[in-house]
Each structure stands twice: as C-alpha cells, then as structure tokens.
Design goal:
The complex is a heterodimer. By secondary structure, chain A is an all-alpha fold. Chain A has 17 helices and no strands. Chain B is mostly helical. Chain B has a domain of 175 residues: MetI-like fold. The radius of gyration of chain B is 25 Å and the shape is globular. The chains are: A mainly alpha, B mainly alpha.
C-alpha cells in the first residue's frame, strides 16, 4: 500500500497504475472491493473480541502467578490475589531458591535433557540410516516395533526398570534416566527419521559410493549434513519432552542431588512452609526455562510440530 | 509411504550393475546394534518382566510367588479399577473431545476469518497464547493450579470470598462431586493449544482456491467450515485425536500433583492406580496387572484408530 502513491506519481498513465484510481467495475477493482468488504463490518471486531477473551482467560493463571510471586503474605491476606503487590517481596523467591537448591536442579535438568536430546538423536540417526537408507530386511516390522514402543505406557515398564536400576546400581543416578529416555525418545525419532530418510535421493548416495566413500563416511559426510534441519527439530523436541517428563524421574530420582526441576517442585507440595509467594515464585522460575527455550526455538518448533503431524 | 515403494522398485532392478552395493544389505545391520541393545534392555526385557510380575504375588522384596491369572481375576471385582477406567473416559472427554472441537473452531476462525481481516500477526499472537500452557512442565502447571484451587488460601476462593460469594467457594479438588470436573477443566486448559497449532498448520496446506470458489458460489463461513475445512484437514484431525487419546489414557502427572487420585478415588486413573500399588502398597504383581491391562487397551485403541483411518481413506479414493 505504501508504494502506490510512488507508482502513481511516476507513471500516472500506465495501465498498471489504474488500480488505485478505481475508475470502474474492472476485474482488479472488483478484487479490491472484496478485500475492502473483508476489512469492514463490526462482525470481525466481535469475532476478534471473542478470541481475545478466550486467550485472556487462558492467561489468567499466569497473571495470578505473576501478581502473587512477589507479594508478601500479609499483603496477600489483606488485599487478595488480584491486587498489585504493594511492595516487591522477594522472600518467596529466595526461600524457594534455597530450599530446592534451584541452580543445582537447573543443572540436573539441563544435563539430563541435553544428554538425552543428543544421544537419542544419534541413536535415531543410526537406526534410520539402516532402516531408511540401508533398507535392511524386515524394516517395516522394526519400524512398527519402535512405533508400538512409543505408545507403550511407561507404567508397564517402570517397575522392572526400577528393579533393574537397583540391581545394577543405577538407581537414583541421572544416568538411569538418561538411558531410559534416550531409548524412549529415539523410538519416536527412528520412526520419523526412517520415513524422512527413505525419500533421500539415491543418486546422491550412488555418487558418494562411486567416489569410494565407505558407509560410515556416507553417513557423516552426506546424510548427516543434508538431514541436519530434521535432526535439529528432533534435538529440540527431545530436549523439551525430556525436560517436561515427570513419571520416570519421580520414580528414579529420590535424592536432592539428582532431581529435576519438576520433581523437586512437586516434592515440596503440601509442605506447610510453602506459602503463596513461595509457590508462585517457585512456579515462575520453574516454568521460565521452558518458556525461554520455547521462544528461542519457536520457529523451528512450529515447523517441527507440522512435520510430526503430516507423518 | 508411496515414495518408499517407488525407490524400492528402482533399486531392485539395479544391484547387478552397482558394484558398491556388492557387500549386500547386511552391512547396514551394524548401525542397528546400539539401538537394538538399548531397546532390548529398556523396553523389551522390562515389558516381559512386567508381564511376569503381573502373574505373581510380590511385595518387591524376596521371591515373587506365581499365582497365574489371580491378579486379573481380582481386578474384575475391584471397584477402584473400574472407577479408574471410568475416569479415563472423563480424561478423553477433557483431553481429546473438547480440545479437538474447540481447537478446530479456533483454528478455522484464526486462519480463515481473522487471518484475512486483520494483520497476520494477530492470528499468530493468539495462536502462541493458546499454545503457552502446552510448553509448561505439566507438574509445574499442576502445582500452580493446585494452589489457585486450594480451598482456604487459593486465589480462586479468596477472590470469591472478597466478592461476597462465600457459597461458591467450594473445596474444588477435595470434594467428590467437584474434583473430577475441576481436573477436567485444568486438562482442557493444558490441552487446547495443541490442536489449534496443528490445525492451523494443516489449513496452510489447503488450496485457497477451494475457499474462493465456495465464496463465489455464495457459501457462508459456516458452510465453508463444514464442507471444506473439516474434510480437508481430516489427516491432522486423525493424528491429533489418536495422540491425545493415548495421552489421556496414560495421564499421570496432573493427577499426581492435583489430587493423588482422591478424594475417595474419584479422580484416580489407571496409571496412578498402578503407581499406588507399585510404590505405596507394595503390591507389585497387582500393579503390574493394571499396567498390562492399560497397555492392552492402548494397543487396541491405536489399532482401531489406524484401521478406521485406513478404511476411510480407502472409501475416499474409490
């Protein structure tokens, strides 16, 4: 729209510039009018108001959390949850920070999720290289098996895993959770990546093979660089999924030194010393990493969600 | 999948003159070894161990005692077991049915109505807002809601009392008549963003000419929604309903942090019921039986879904 006056000024008589004049019921003017119709009317404002209202309703818990994270208990009992805090009260945050050793839990969550994200992607790539490009015999069965494993309820594995971890001395170690989620996440990764790699252009592989590249070299010098965007999506997915996992970390990690953020937060629940500011400040800094991560990788993620949906 | 078969066919005619392939397909098996070993140790062996445990009486220490199918027989007459599966249906309503319907409507409105009448950023900001609860660790979301819904000190009841609505300040999660509906509301809040994002992505795939042609024929927004939007994004609807149904059957974290299955098991679900038997009651065999039944149900539901989709695809291509 901003370029129109310029066009008009430069070549006033050119046929292309006739549009803005809207001289008569020509085709172009008709299209303009229909767009105009779309931009008029009060209905669109009504619909916008309804969707914004839904969005606002969904934001209420976050707003309440923000309002009460830095409000003193006295202020809370005097003015309730909907008022702005009268002064900045940070004892809740400090209390939570020290009681759960937040930096330690953050480090645990990052170590576990980061290791799983990388390892599960490597395992998925290996599996998918054999299944999607190598086309080993019985690959349909193998892929189906991985898909089934992905749907399996963790409840059906948890007690044996707990038992085996105790037998092998891995119980209450981060390594146990890393191994378990590397397998669970790579089950999905194998399924997705196998179908992606099965469309890999064979001519590229043939060219590499004619150049004398071994399978190992083909994997790392040809397949890996070309499928890097998909692998990046998998890394991000695996990181977030593992970060948000609750059930198996709850069972496997009982120690303050090994727990992840969600498990540590849940273990404080029902504690009498957990007042409103502690809970809210704790929730706030516990969900902050996930939200920051989401905003950094939002574009990659929405692409990834789409990729996952049209599998 | 169509492309797979094409490639297969083309490579199938070639191996004779492709010398690098002479070593055979076997060479690729090597790459499956790390995945296979891990898979065996973390999925296959534990799965069969669980199956074995489900046929024993075992407290977690000492030797499991073989009792055959007794645990499964016991399940049939256990009221809590039936209650937990009834609550699974409530979870399917809250995590699949309601979010899919609302998500479909919101996605269509955002994409096809607001997207055309306002700046594109309006729709994407709204979409991100709806999606925000989805990115939280579900345990954190549960803790936050647990506090908001606390009967004495929670934000909801304190606000209601401030407004003089004392009689509405119920014990939301602590009363058998309100606990399940309250948990369902929280799950709807958690779940809505997922179908919105998937369906909006799906709509980008739909040929805009379809809408333009329908509009020229005088079809109103709702008719276009019914005749174009819904049929066109059927594959995505299918994926959303399948993945959410499985998630609803497996739901654990929100129940653990919100209600621990209570009061009086009114919000207990199979996964939490199994957890209770494993770790609180030391009835490992019984817990394993519950987990096995849940697994069988998940597999049956998945197969039913996939067959249903295949059948409807076949009907369409005919």
């Amino acid at each position: 729209m901003t370029t129109e006056p310029v066009v008009l000024g430069r070549t006033p008589l050119a046929p292309g510039a006739a549009g803005p004049d809207r001289p008569g019921p020509s085709g172009a003017a008709g299209a303009d009018r229909s767009r105009d119709r779309l931009h008029r009317g009060s209905l669109r404002w009504l619909v916008l108001a309804v969707t914004v209202l839904v969005a606002a309703a969904m934001m209420v818990p976050f707003a309440i959390m923000l309002l009460n994270a830095f409000k003193s208990p006295a202020d809370y009992s005097a003015n309730g949850p909907l008022s702005l805090p009268t002064s900045l009260y940070t004892d809740g945050l400090v209390n939570f920070w020290n009681r759960v050793d937040y930096p330690g839990k953050l480090a645990n969550s990052i170590v576990i999720s980061g290791s799983v994200a990388i390892l599960a992607t490597v395992v998925s790539l290996f599996n998918a290289y054999a299944l999607g490009i190598g086309r080993v015999k019985g690959r349909m069965w193998i892929v189906t098996l991985f898909l089934l494993a992905n749907m399996l309820p963790q409840e059906a594995l948890v007690y044996p895993l707990y038992f085996l971890a105790k037998e092998t001395g891995l119980y209450n170690t981060q390594l146990s959770v890393i191994i378990i989620f590397t397998v669970i996440q790579s089950a999905f990764g194998t399924y997705l990546l196998s179908s992606v790699l099965s469309t890999f252009p064979p001519s590229v592989l043939e060219a590499a093979a004619l150049d004398g590249a071994s399978r190992w070299q083909v994997l790392w010098r040809v397949v890996f660089p070309i499928s890097r965007p998909t692998l990046a999506v998998l890394v991000i997915f695996f990181f977030i999924w593992t970060w948000n996992e609750f059930f198996i970390p709850l069972v496997m990690l009982i120690d303050n030194a090994t727990q992840t953020i969600p498990v540590a937060l849940a273990s404080l629940q029902g504690d009498r010393l957990m007042d409103a500011p502690t809970i809210n400040a704790g929730s706030l800094i516990s969900l902050l990493p996930a939200v920051i991560f989401f905003f950094i990788f939002q574009r990659t993620l929405t692409r990834g969600i789409t990729a996952g949906a049209v599998k | 999948m169509a492309t797979t078969t094409v490639h297969e066919a083309s490579t199938g005619t070639r191996p004779a003159r492709r010398s690098p392939d002479r070593s055979g397909r076997g060479g690729y098996w090597f790459y499956l070894i790390p995945g296979a070993v891990l898979f065996l140790g973390v999925i296959v062996v534990p799965f069969f161990m669980n199956l074995y445990f489900s046929m024993t009486r075992w407290a977690g220490i000492g030797d499991p005692q073989w009792i055959g199918l007794d645990n499964y027989v016991r399940l049939l007459s256990d009221a809590t077991f039936w209650m937990s599966f009834r609550n699974s249906i409530a979870m399917i309503v809250a995590m699949v049915v309601v979010p899919t319907l609302i998500g479909l409507l919101l996605a269509a409105v955002l994409f096809d109505f607001l997207g055309k009448r306002f700046d594109g950023r309006v729709a994407s900001i709204l979409r991100a807002t709806y999606y925000l609860p989805q990115i939280l660790p579900v345990a954190v979301a549960g803790i936050l809601w647990g506090w908001i819904l606390n009967p004495q000190t929670g934000a909801l009841n304190v606000t209601l009392r401030q407004l003089g609505l004392e009689q509405l300040a119920l014990n939301w999660l602590g009363d058998t008549s309100t606990a399940l509906p309250t948990v369902m509301m929280v799950m709807i809040w958690v779940q809505i963003g997922y179908p919105v994002v998937i369906f909006m992505a799906a709509l980008q795939r739909v040929d805009p000419e379809l809408y333009e042609a329908a509009e020229l024929d005088g079809a109103g927004w709702f008719r276009r929604f019914r005749a174009i939007t819904i049929p066109q994004i059927k594959p995505e609807t299918f994926v959303v309903t399948l993945t959410c149904t499985i998630a609803a059957l497996k739901v654990f974290g929100p129940i653990f942090v919100l209600t621990r299955g209570g009061p009086e098991n009114s919000t207990n679900v199979p996964s939490y019921f199994a957890y209770q038997n494993f770790f609180a009651r030391s009835q490992v065999g019984y817990g394993a039986a519950i987990a096995t039944v849940l697994t069988v149900i998940v597999i049956i539901v998945s197969i039913a879904f996939i067959r249903f989709q295949m059948a409807s695809e076949r009907k369409e291509s005919r």
